[in-house]
C-alpha cells in the first residue's frame, strides 16, 4: 500500500422498514462497522432513515439485529393470528378484541426490558409470574383451540417448552428461563 493510499472502511447495514418508508423520519437502519466511520457519515445515513443506529464495530451484527427483529415480529404476528382465528371462530370481531385488549397487550412489551435483564444476568427466579403458573393457561388454550378446530401447533410447542422447563426443575423461574431451550444446539 502506498503512503497516500487510505484504508477502506465498510459499514454494514440492515434496513428495518418496507421500501416506501425508506427515507422517512421513522425508518430505522442498523449499522455495524467502525464507529468513527459511522459518526463521520451519520448525517448522510439519515437520508436512508431518520434513525440510523450504530450497533457494533462488527458489520455482521447489524444483519443479526435485523434477523432478531424479524424473529420477534413473526412470533408476535403468529400469536396474534392464532388468537384471531380462535376469536373469529367464536364470531368475535378481531378489531373489537384488539381495542379491548390493548392495555394488556401493551403491558407485554413492557416486560421485554425486564426479561432481557434476567437473560443477561442469567438470573431467572421470580416472586411472581413463575413458569409453573403458565401451564394451566396453555392447556386451556390448547383445549379451546381443539374444540373449535383451530390449529394447535403453536400453543402445543409453547406447552412443550414450558413443560420441559418444569421437568428440569425451573417451575419457580420466569418465562425468560426458556431462552436456554432456544440456545441449545
| General form | globular
Helix content: 55-70%
Q: What value does the Rg take, in angstroms?
A: 22 Å
Average pLDDT value? 92
Strand content: 5-15%
Going across the biggest sheet, name each strand in turn: 1-2-3
Would you spell out the secondary-structure blueprint of this structure?
Elements: E1 12-15, E2 28-32, H1 35-45, E3 51-56, H2 59-89, H3 94-121, H4 134-148, H5 153-167, H6 179-183
Parallel strand pairs: 2-3
Antiparallel strand pairs: 1-2
Helix pairs in contact: 4-5
Task: Give a description of the structure.
The protein has 185 residues and is mostly helical. Helix content is 57%, strand content 8%. It has helices at 35-45, 59-89, 94-121, 134-148, 153-167, 179-183, and strands at 12-15, 28-32, 51-56. The protein has a three-stranded mixed beta sheet with strand order 1-2-3, sandwiched between helices. α1 (35-45) links the parallel β2 and β3 (51-56). α4 (134-148) runs antiparallel to α5 (153-167). The chain is globular, with a radius of gyration of 22 Å. It starts with 11 loop residues before the first strand and ends with a helix.
How would you sum up this structure in a few lines?
With 185 residues, the chain is mainly α.
Overview features:
mainly alpha; 185 residues; globular; 57% helix
